[in-house]
Structures are given as C-alpha cells and as structure tokens.
Write a structure and sequence with these properties.
Oligomer: single chain
Structural class: mainly alpha
Strand content: under 5%
Shape: flat
Radius of gyration: 21 Å
Number of strands: 0
C-alpha cells in the first residue's frame, strides 16, 4: 500500500480531470459538427438522407456507449488501424453525441411554425438561405438550453472511456484506489469532482431556459 495524503489524492485527480474536460469538449464540439451536417441532410430531404439519418440515430442511441467504445478501440485494429485510447474515445463519443444532438435539433427545427418556411419560400430564398436566415435563428433559441443540458451527459459519459485504458477522472480514481486501498475516500473525491463539473452546467442550462422563456 502506498501512503497518499488527501492532498495527493485530490491533486492527482485534478490532473486527470483535465483530460475529462478535454475529451468532453472534443466529443461535444465534434458531435455538434456531425449532428449539424446530419440535420441539414435530413431537413433538405436529400435522396436516402432521411433513412440514413434515422438508421444512424437508431444505431448509436440503441446500443450501449460502452460497446461503441470497445468497437472503436478493438474493431478498428482489425482493419489495420493503430488506434490509441485517445482516438478511440474521441471517435466513439463524437458519434454517440452527434446521434443525440441531431435529434434534439431536429425537434427544435420542427417546432418552428410551418408558416415561417412558407414565408421564406415566398421571398424566393434558396433552401440554404431559408435555414440560415429564417429557420435556424428561431430554432437556435429553442435548442440552446437542451443542448447545454446534454453536455452534462457527455461529461458523465467520458467515465466509460476508462475501460479502454484512457486515463481520465474515473480511471485515475481506480489507479489511486489500487495503490491506497481507500476506495471510499478516493471515489468520494471522484464523485465530488464530477459534481463540480456537471452542476454548473446544469444551472446554466436552467438559467438559459428561463431566460429564453421570458423572452418569448
């Protein structure tokens, strides 16, 4: 057993928490970009796009994130790709996040009254101009709060990356526990750090929702 003080435990967990934050941001930003492309493809009703996006969403929402991480890490290696835990975790979480964000945003776009589409068409705007100037600005106000709220799920989801050897907050907690044999203390600190990351995001999402409801 290694003798760790409370400060040593907290300091090492804080160092690992940096990678939890970085991975969360990669997944959220990457998932947002992929989700936006999928949203445009589905809204534009390109041939086969609707069926593809529906299948994509069902695949990533209907399978456990843990399994997706395993497939990204071990599956790509079968095709000759030298996949690190970093790459596999980023890829799996990005695809997982995009499947949820595209559905959140699709609902927000559909919440915009159809009259707005008709008004934009009457101005002879192209489909891209209709989205950019009329539909998306209105849908964005509806989407901000649930999108920010989903970031909490992304942060918590990064904990599963520990199963493929990615050293983030949960993995660091396991490693410290193995060295100190103090699981209650270590995992209590881990839980508090996740709370410290997620609670402000939850509060911000609620504040945005109230603010936008007042404006309406």
């Amino acid at each position: 057993m290694v003798d760790f003080s409370l400060w040593d435990i907290v300091r090492n967990l804080l160092l690992a928490a940096r990678w939890t934050v970085v991975l969360s941001l990669i997944a959220f930003v990457g998932g947002g970009l992929v989700g936006l492309l999928l949203l445009v493809a589905r809204t534009a009703r390109w041939p086969g796009a609707t069926a593809f996006v529906k299948g994509y969403v069902q695949l990533f929402q209907g399978t456990p994130l843990l399994m997706q991480l395993f497939l990204a890490y071990f599956g790509l290696a079968l095709f000759g790709f030298d996949t690190s835990a970093w790459v596999a975790a980023s890829l799996a979480l990005t695809l997982y996040t995009s499947a949820f964000l595209v559905e959140i945003w699709r609902g927000c776009v559909e919440a915009v009254p159809k009259g707005q589409w008709e008004a934009a068409q009457s101005l002879a705007l192209s489909f891209g101009e209709q989205l950019r100037h009329v539909i998306l600005p209105q849908a964005r106000r509806i989407a901000i709060a649930p999108t920010v709220g989903f970031l909490v799920q992304v942060i918590k989801g990064t904990a599963l990356a520990s199963v493929i050897g990615f050293v983030e907050l949960t993995k660091a907690g396991t490693m410290i526990t193995n060295a100190t044999f103090a699981p209650f203390l270590v995992y209590s600190c881990v839980a508090l750090m996740y709370f410290a990351l997620c609670f402000p995001v939850s509060l911000y999402a609620r504040a945005l929702e109230r603010k936008l409801n007042v404006r309406r």
